[in-house]
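Can you give me the bound-state structure? Components:
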Amino acid sequence: MSDDLLSMTAHALGAAVAAGRVRAVDAVDKSLARARELDGGDAPLNCFLTLADPAAHDEAIRMDGGHVDADAPRPLAGVPVAIKDNIATHTLPTSCGSRILHGYVSPYEATAVRLLRAAGAIVMGKANMDEFAMGSSTENSAYGPTRNPIDPSRVPGGSSGGSAAAVAAGITSIALGSETGGSVRQPAAFCGVVGVKPTYGRVSRYGLVAFASSLDQVGVFGRTVDDAALAFQVIAAHDPRDATSATAPVDDYRVGDGDLTGLVVGKPAEYFPESLDPAVRDRSERALDALRSRGATIRDVSMPHTELAIPVYYIVAPAEASSNLARFDGVRYGLRVPQPQLRDMYEATRSQGFGPEVTRRILLGTYVLSAGYYDAYYRQAQRVRSLIAADFANVFSSGVDVLFTPTTPTPAFPFGAKSDPYEMYLSDIFTVTANLAGVPAMSLPIGRVDGLPVGGQILAPHFGEAAMFRVAYALESVLGAEAHR
Amino acid sequence: MAVNEREVRRIAELARLGIEDARVPMLVDELNRILEHMDVLSKVDTGRLAPVEGMGAGAMPLRHDAGPPIPLARTREEFAPELRDGFFTVPRLATHGDPDGGMESGA
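Here's the bound-state model for the whole set.
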């Protein structure tokens, strides 16, 4: 029975625990044991920076004993969940994968975590990540890289690599990550799971440690489309604690009868360039055929400013990061490297606390915001960003309901394969556009190449998550086992 | 546009980052290799475009100038690096003199 618990969907497990057919403590203990097993040994996956052991076990015991509000709906009752380490939890440390926040425990909890707990989920650990979410491989964590459970010689993607790997390895069925330029979708694609980036404002950023505030969103991972939709349904809500939280009504995301008749799916030429890995192209075309088979019409479209997205992103995101990360100076949080004078303390703390990629991006961001360069770089990037947003607005106002693209140009790459920073940045080429435009997007498995997962991306208009999930349900249903081979 | 060593040192100072001298040439090289990819943006005609300010279809709805209380699970004494008498303790500012002034005198 207990082995089955790890393979149960979050939906099935939540229903079984709520009905008293399964004990929450059995599910949580099994999840913790698998995390310890896979994060130990000679080739640890290193999914987790902290395990809630024994706190998660104790919480599950309380739930089984009926010491919770039994009248409240608990669709995730007893479901173990992994939380990316840049999302605040008041019971576990929140280090952001950085030395500068080593051991830091937030005095408050992120809204997304609070909502998951209210739905019955049990936080079983904090997942590894690229330091301050800056990276595409989880190689930038101060606490060592996470390995891809499908092929441990390869990266899991990033920056939410620990969360994606935990779901792919069967430790949890759902996890929280965060998105700034593809940090949920890209690792979801590399690890063969489902990853969702919400419309900007759909999920509260309260308690998400800020990297680039105009791009950041909390996202979800699931082993199945339905589990991702279920977790997303729980955390999608207006939050008065987040000034950028949207007041738009929350739709029902868990609907999809598989029929896509009348739906128009755009296929943007810029996401299928000549240089695209032929096998990735093949799997993407097969996915488009699957959508056709359910009645969708595929329409060729153009989004001509796509090639400018990476340069825009790598100006805007570091600029915002250089401002947001100024707060980590040894005064209020985490690490302090004592020096006799205040300014020396700032510099020593930040230099010893931040790793190379964070340092690089802070320098880049400070440069593009500095006098004499602001107009040429930052202001120009924000203007070009409006062209990228207009590409989406134009295509969605022309009768296209959703877009379909590959999530990444290639499957997961080996450790150390991308030593040049800009080459690493190009890993995000198909994902950063959604963040720049603020539209929702998700990745789901559409097949494998030499055993490595390939992800397909669905993008929708602002607050169009219901249509996005509808397509994802249909695609998952048609591809079936083919999505994982 | 390209940065040089003097500029990288200036940026590091602005960002309150102490960079070892040996690392500066490498950072110059890395930043310039990144910045050369940004030059493509200067070729885009954006004369009539407004920069993006604020995000999302709903933008930022106005709200009362008072948020709900922050649900703190513990006091700030438990997460600040150092506190004294309820204040966050830091070294003295260099401009205040006192070369020996450490944490004790700077609250």
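A couple of observations. Chain A touches chain B through 79 residues (CB under 8 Å). Chain A has a mean pLDDT of 95.
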